[in-house]
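Page header: ASSEMBLY MODEL / four components / 398 residues total.
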Amino acid sequence: MVRTIERLPKRQRHQQLSRLIDENPFITDRELTRQLKVSIQTIRLDRMELAIPELRERLKLMAERSYDAVRSLPLHEVIGDIVDLQLDRSGISIFEIRAEHVFSRTGIARGHHVFAQANSLAVAVINEEIALTATADIRFVRSVKLGEKCIAKAYVRSISGERSKAKVEVFSYVGDEMVFQGHFVIYRSTGETVIEGGI
Amino acid sequence: MVRTIERLPKRQRHQQLSRLIDENPFITDRELTRQLKVSIQTIRLDRMELAIPELRERLKLMAERSYDAVRSLPLHEVIGDIVDLQLDRSGISIFEIRAEHVFSRTGIARGHHVFAQANSLAVAVINEEIALTATADIRFVRSVKLGEKCIAKAYVRSISGERSKAKVEVFSYVGDEMVFQGHFVIYRSTGETVIEGGI
DNA sequence: CAGCTATTATAACCTGGTACTAATTATATA
DNA sequence: TATATAATTAGTACCAGGTTATAATAGCTG
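Prediction written out in full:
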């Protein structure tokens, strides 16, 4: 194991290689030889050492990731994971604030994501075929930050007979701190199923 | 052009082929020969006729799509396309309701997407480093449906000096019908830049 | 100089195709 | 029934973008 001062060029090249592939996963080894001025064999040895798969494998992995993402999009139906639900009474959901939910400069969650969790919970807790938000009166008590887990609790306050509206209150917490509260009025249209655009 | 009654088997196969590739884009021609019991040349002729690219092209296209999606995620910062913006005065954004925004059984847009458009426009129109929604009072006037284009118009109603709050009204329309209205109070913290989670 | 790492070269082989030519089979219509 | 036409199958050459393996060369260093 000879370890001298000048063993950098390889490491530097490895870094550059990682960076290049990272910022353009569609690059071929041949392209990389041109950019890094080493033989194609060196590139391939480097990829080996760095455990970077070949172009086609990279594309396949990306395709698989996006395919899975599309498949799990129906999960997008409700924002947050519902962990408890008593129809027409109450419900609880958990929503973790991730990078895609925050203002990138501040790491503070955009209001509509916090709202979305509360709104979809308020709709879910109503035991009806079709339930739509009519009005909402909301307050963002304190900002929610990247990585925090937002726990929303919904309570159905009143259901006007078998009629059209229900009132739902939602409170969202991070730990024991309330971060959001909202009063929702939800439309509940029981009978008619007016679906259009069939086939 | 001979057109008789019994020219179906090919069309049927084409349909099956399309379906198979659609539900598993990762399938090779060789696999397809096994499933459809025809030669690999037939499979390839069929793909030609149907203009279905080869496996590797399909994966590359999927990878590109997802890569673009990730790259344009910062565009996710604002929901809807802002088409006009006069800072501290008014703004307009357009948001097309797509399949991922609606209740699948009814084709009616989920409230939080309509809200998200209005909310992000209300925040965008405020000319400040950091602007956060404090409260909102919203009303969903009529439901918005799949395929409709939602046009939100925001008006800044008052700015309390150089202080902390601004009032913004947002009205959303489909055509000339108002579908949503909201009164937002937006926090505007000028000076302090309290960013955490650095590196 | 020996010994070591790093790099480059060379060749065989692989997958999943395209492009092209040709033969075979099925079908339909005059 | 013959024959034109369409559909299918077969076979070959070639390609990109690699892997695997084996060997040669360069460069330093003690």
